[in-house]
Write a structure and sequence with these properties.
The complex is a heterotrimer of chains A (498), B (147) and C (508). By secondary structure, chain A is an alpha+beta fold. Helix content of chain A is 42%, strand content 19%. Chain A contains 17 helices and 16 strands. In chain A, α6 packs across α7 and α16 packs across α17. The N and C termini of chain A lie far apart (72 Å). By secondary structure, chain B is α+β, with helices and mostly antiparallel strands. Chain B has a domain of 63 residues. Chain B has a 3-stranded mixed beta sheet. The longest helix of chain B is centred in the middle third of the chain and has 18 residues. Chain B is flat and about 70 Å long. Chain C has 508 residues and is α/β, with parallel strands linked by helices. In chain C, α5 packs parallel to α6, α10 packs across α12 and α10 crosses α13. The two termini of chain C are 29 Å apart. The chains are: A alpha+beta (498), B alpha+beta (147), C alpha/beta (508). Chains in contact: A-B, A-C, B-C. Chains A and B meet through α2, β8, β9 and β16 of A and α4 and β5 of B.
């Protein structure tokens, strides 16, 4: 960024609108009975309908409607009892019929909001609409040809469009994270940004602070992680400000984010503004939803992340931060809740929360980094077994450090904590006499350090603790070690004075 | 009242004027744009007679301007219309016509015929290390799209 | 048995069930007839006589095994080349599909196969069903069996001619603006288009989705009822089909009683009898009116005032939907793909689209695609497509109101009998206007049929005659009433019995 402008750019604010496309977790495609699968051989999940063959006709997938309505209700969007599908017409090789079945002026839901929190500040982002449509196929470009795979053509999507009332990349990411989380919680989507089942485009514009109008916006595409969304938006805001301060005008265009160079560049080769010639899809009836259906779907919505967070802080007295971490992933939240259930009050809930957050999640993160195949937490370590480990530590059978080692072993072998402790003889040494003896040895073996400690170098206390732990191969009960070491040293001091 | 159909110059190179140059701007239709949208590559010969034919047809179609549709919503409400011509209504369980989310194949559908119909197909996969394999179905091939 | 080809489905079925003839005899009779006559008529684009005989042999086995045999078992039928039959070419009379083999069966075809019909061949049509004369076929001209210099009507001209010239026992076509009824009228046969949504469109190449409907062409109303019954019904693969009770139409027609005409309110729209109607046609329709009056019907004058917009509204809606439906013909996955000459620069994607479509589509198709694209395009959508859709609702309301006063509506199917080949090809608009009585029926999703009620003199062929068709329209989902009334009129006029000798087709 041009440093000359750095003070001028403060007079600008950014206006961002986000368009999210999310795949739906249905078994079949939106308008035909082909399987809705990712990652199989090209053109192997296709039929006359999604191939766009002559004479083929679409038929609505009931499950797709249910999931879309569920998502809309969770996002506080008003359901339109009567909506229609339309054809969006344009030529492109990944669009076999030459049109996409979508919704336009009469979508299934319009007018809602999502509350987010950014750096402690609450904000309500308004949502313009959520509608249903079908996805296009995939193209591979190699040399001077392109290759069409229609497996993905016809798979169900919901498009969620926010109002342009997001004002920073931070807010944008918070909105996207919460939105994604809700969709995953509902079982509507698997929220996978890398595989493309949760996609986001950002419409970015800037204006002088206080200006009521909207600046020219650009559409930023190709951001497939939250990190890239943030970077792309930041880059684009700065770029637009620079353009304006240089006396130029922002061009309305679509720009692609380049993650290697961390910049956006205009899309080349695509035609000028499409005229999609929208008209009501004559092959499908209007979508008529009854009150009964809508309330049934509403009833099927289980506790959402925000509600869970609030309950954790209120009921379990966890911090907001902890509540946030636990509810980030529905699986983790449910795992945590199940732990509490079988715990039956034996261990303090706060402690259980810490175990999950500090120990379990960090182990999982390490495994992710090592690219272990994605498994469910509950398959990696059963709830009973994890609670078993917690109890071993909380009752003092092993110390916390040992606990971490045992957990790693549990994840590798699938064995129970108790088994591992027995096998490897990891039980904590807690008997006073045993520890006392070892402490005495350590004190005798290190006379210089002892003298220094007595004469005031308190830091050396840790040195002795470490030495004891080393001698006991880490098995000594740290609390006891501390206690007894303190006493022993106090006695020595007494002894010195005499 | 006839429409003055002009073929404005586009990348395809159309430049044809049909009829009087004093026509109202509102009556000038850019057929070149429409031809672009419809992905047709009309020859000089086609454009020749097309202009006057469309002129005549559009002139006739203008009769719809006279129709008074202002009272439509009072006359035939949406749901009544849906019920009459489609058999769909709000009290009906709409979903019994929507299919259930289960995989079902059309047993008469034969993909081998689709492959036979394809003008250009690639049946080898793409891999980074050059060990491509034979695919069951393959990709449809088109000239490159610049993106 | 001689001249089996001249019998109806009803008559043939009776003989089959009584064991007096075999399916292979019937198939053989039609095959011989096609070989002899179709070079003159040109009804068929493709035939498969081997398959026909195989189907017939199979049908004979089934008939032998006894039990309840469906009425079309062993009956040879022709199918408009717009229905997909797996493994067979479907061209829609277009160059763009000149090598297209159907990878699946249309639902209608599945049902026919389940009933063990005999497949004779695919019939000629206007390209993509766009036309009223079958002259828009990219492959051949079909001639009217009553006068080889005249058109058979369209777009299901091949189907109508094949029934009329006894080149099959019955046929399936499609009707978007009159494409089954008008050729039926021109060729002197019965053509029925049921309520929109009665027959599945899955596997029928789409022209205009909210107007297309499969229809039947037959030698008499009983046959029409039989064919309708064989294919009507809700289809889970077509969400525009309706859930309704499929009746035994053949049975109902069989029980049709003259007495039911007593008190029947017969509407005659003033708009269907205005200028432009050929006096010969007019007089025949008025004769039917007198006939019905004689049987106790109440003739009611009705008005369908907004039908004056029907041709205009139709040509906006149908072409708009068609422009979208035909976008899939892009040379990528199937159909004709333009090949650049050797040694020239490679073809870009855009050129691939435009050139394939340029060379693949005929003039009428291109005209309609352009019109439809225009009517939907930004800046014109409101004035054209949207306005036409609202007018459509006005017309539906016209009919809804009319059916409060009338139980059925009658009128001429076409303003004049069959015109000469080449007569209207230079003037698309006059071609469109010949559909003026049939179009509002499709716009209104209603059922209707055309039946031959007499002849007009052929002005260009001394001593020759041209058939005149009566159109009957009935309210939504009342095909039973429609067919019954037709049956009674048919019984009074005895068109088939009186004109059996006129069926000897000779060509100069």
């Amino acid at each position: 960024m041009n440093s000359v402008h750095s003070t001028d750019s403060g007079q600008f604010e950014s206006v961002i609108g986000l368009e999210v496309h999310s795949q739906l977790l249905t078994k079949t495609k939106m308008f035909c009975t082909c399987p809705n699968i990712f990652g199989i051989e090209p053109n192997s999940a296709v039929c006359p309908v999604c191939l766009g063959l002559p004479g083929a006709l679409p038929v609505i997938n009931f499950e797709g409607i249910k999931l879309a309505v569920k998502a809309a209700l969770a996002l506080n969007i008003d359901i339109n009892k009567r909506s229609v599908f339309v054809r969006k017409n344009y030529f492109y090789p990944d669009l076999p019929k030459g049109y996409q079945i979508s919704q336009y002026l009469e979508p299934v839901s319009s007018g809602g909001y999502l509350d987010i929190k950014v750096e402690g500040v609450e904000k309500r982002v308004e949502i313009n609409r959520l509608h249903i449509e079908e996805d296009a196929g995939k193209l591979i470009h190699v040399e001077n040809e392109s290759y069409v795979d229609l497996n993905r053509a016809g798979t169900p999507l919901i498009e969620i469009v926010s109002e342009p009332n997001i004002n920073s990349s931070g807010e944008a990411v918070a909105y996207l994270k919460e939105l994604r989380n809700i969709l995953v919680y509902l079982g509507v989507s698997d929220g996978n940004m890398e595989e493309g089942s949760f996609r986001c485009d950002a419409n970015v514009s800037v204006r002088k602070k206080g200006d009521p109008g909207l600046g020219t916006r650009t559409e930023v595409k190709n951001v497939n992680s939250f990190k890239f969304v943030e970077k792309a938006i930041n880059y684009e805001i700065e770029r637009q400000i620079d353009v304006i301060l240089d006396g130029g005008k922002v061009i309305q265009e679509t720009r692609l984010y380049d993650s290697k160079e961390d910049l956006t560049r205009p899309m080349r080769g695509k035609e000028e503004a499409h005229d999609y010639r929208y008209f009501e899809e004559p092959d499908l009836p209007p979508l008529i939803l009854t009150d009964k259906f809508i309330s049934e779907i509403k009833g099927s919505i289980t506790e959402l992340p925000t509600a869970k967070r609030e309950r954790y802080t209120a009921e379990y007295l966890l911090t907001e931060y902890d509540g946030g971490v636990l509810t980030q992933d529905k699986e983790i939240a449910l795992y945590f809740e199940d732990l509490i259930e079988i715990n039956e009050g034996r261990v303090e809930i706060k402690k259980i929360a810490n175990w999950v957050i500090n120990d379990l999640l960090s182990e999982l993160k390490t495994r992710d980094k090592m690219k272990v195949r994605k498994e469910r937490v509950i398959d990696l370590v059963k709830i009973e077994n994890f609670l078993g480990l917690i109890l071993e530590v909380e009752t003092g059978n092993i110390n916390k450090n040992t606990g971490k080692t045992v957990l790693a072993e549990m994840l590798l072998s699938g064995k129970k904590a108790g088994e591992i402790i027995k096998e490897k003889n990891l039980a904590q040494v807690s008997d006073e006499k045993g520890i006392g003896d070892i402490i005495n040895h350590v004190l005798e073996e290190n006379p210089k350090e002892l003298t220094d400690l007595i004469s005031g170098k308190d830091k050396l206390f840790g040195f002795f603790v470490g030495a004891v732990m080393k001698k006991t191969k880490g098995k000594a009960n740290p609390k006891k070690v501390n206690e007894i070491l303190k006493r022993s040293i106090a006695e020595k001091i007494k002894g010195c004075r005499e | 009242m006839s429409k003055h159909i002009t073929m404005k110059k586009t990348e395809g190179g159309y430049s044809m004027n049909n009829g009087n140059d004093n026509a109202d701007a509102a009556d000038i239709i850019d057929i070149g744009h429409v031809i672009n949208l419809a992905k047709l590559d009309l020859s000089r010969k086609d454009l020749g007679h097309l202009g006057s034919e469309l002129n005549g047809i559009l002139g006739y179609i203008d009769i719809i301007k006279e129709a008074d549709v202002s009272k439509i919503s009072g006359i035939l409400d949406e749901l009544e219309y849906d019920k009459l011509v489609r058999g769909v209504d709000l009290n009906d369980e709409f979903f019994k016509d929507c299919r259930i989310d289960e995989c079902k194949t059309d047993d008469s559908f034969d993909f081998a015929i689709v492959e036979g119909n394809a003008p250009s197909l690639r049946v080898r996969s793409f891999t980074d290390n050059g060990s491509d394999t034979e695919l069951r179905h393959g990709f449809f091939v088109v000239p490159q799209i610049i993106e | 048995m001689d001249n089996l080809y001249g019998l109806t489905i009803g008559e043939l079925g009776e003989l089959l069930r009584q064991g007096e003839i075999k399916s292979v005899d019937i198939a053989d009779s039609y095959i011989k007839r096609i070989k002899e006559v179709d070079t003159s008529v040109g009804a068929y684009l493709q035939t498969d006589f081997e398959e026909a005989m195989k189907n017939a042999e199979n049908a004979d086995k089934i008939i032998m095994s006894g039990g309840d045999i469906p009425p079309i078992t062993g009956i040879p039928l022709s199918i408009k080349d717009i229905f997909l039959i797996k493994g067979k070419k479907t061209t829609c009379a277009s160059k763009i599909l000149n090598n297209f083999i159907s990878p699946y069966d249309a639902t209608v075809v599945k049902k026919l196969k389940q009933n063990n019909y005999v497949f004779l061949g695919k019939t000629n049509l206007d390209e993509f069903a766009m036309g009223s004369s079958t002259e828009n076929s990219a492959y051949k001209v079909t001639r009217n069996p009553y006068d080889s210099k005249r058109v058979p009507g369209g777009s299901s001209g091949g189907s109508a001619a094949s029934v009329s010239a006894d080149l099959c026992a019955g046929s399936f076509g499609t009707d978007t603006g009159g494409s089954v009824r008008q050729p039926a009228a021109f060729c002197g046969v019965v053509g029925l288009k049921p309520t929109y949504g009665l027959i599945s469109r899955y596997g029928i190449v789409a022209f205009s989705s909210s107007l297309d409907q499969a229809g039947v062409l037959a030698k008499d109303t009983t046959d029409a009822a039989i064919l309708l019954g064989a294919v009507a019904g809700f289809d889970e693969r077509d969400q525009t089909t309706r859930r309704f009770e499929v009746k035994n139409y053949a049975d109902i027609v069989g029980r049709a009683n003259k007495a039911s005409i007593k008190g029947l309110r017969v509407g005659m729209p003033v708009e269907f009898f205005s200028e432009g109607l050929d006096p010969g046609v007019n007089s025949k329709i008025l004769e039917v009116r007198e006939l019905l009056k004689g049987l106790g019907a109440n003739i009611v004058d009705i008005s369908l005032p907004d039908t004056k917009y029907s041709v205009a509204a139709y040509y906006i809606i149908a072409t708009s939907e068609a422009s979208s439906n035909l976008e899939r013909y892009d040379g990528i996955r199937f159909g004709y793909r333009y090949k650049q000459e050797q040694g020239t620069r490679g073809l870009g994607l855009d050129d691939l689209y435009s050139k394939s479509r340029e060379f693949g589509f005929g003039d009428e198709v291109k005209r309609r695609i352009i019109l439809g694209t225009f009517a939907l395009s930004a800046g014109y959508y409101d004035a054209y497509y949207k306005k036409a859709s609202l007018i459509r609702k006005l017309i539906i309301k016209n009919y809804k109101d009319a059916f409060e006063k009338a139980d059925i509506i009658i009128g001429p199917t076409s303003p004049a009998p069959a015109f000469l080949i080449g007569e209207k090809t230079g003037d698309p608009l006059s071609m469109y206007l010949s559909d003026i009585y049939t179009i509002s029926v499709n716009l209104s999703y209603l059922p209707a049929l055309s039946m031959p009620v007499g002849f007009a003199d052929n002005p260009t062929k001394p001593g020759g005659v041209l058939p005149i068709g009566l159109q009957i329209i009935s309210p939504w989902l009342t095909e039973d009433r429609l067919l019954s009334v037709a049956k009674i009129i048919e019984g009074e006029i005895k068109f088939r019995e009186n004109n059996i000798n006129k069926k000897d087709i000779r060509y100069e």
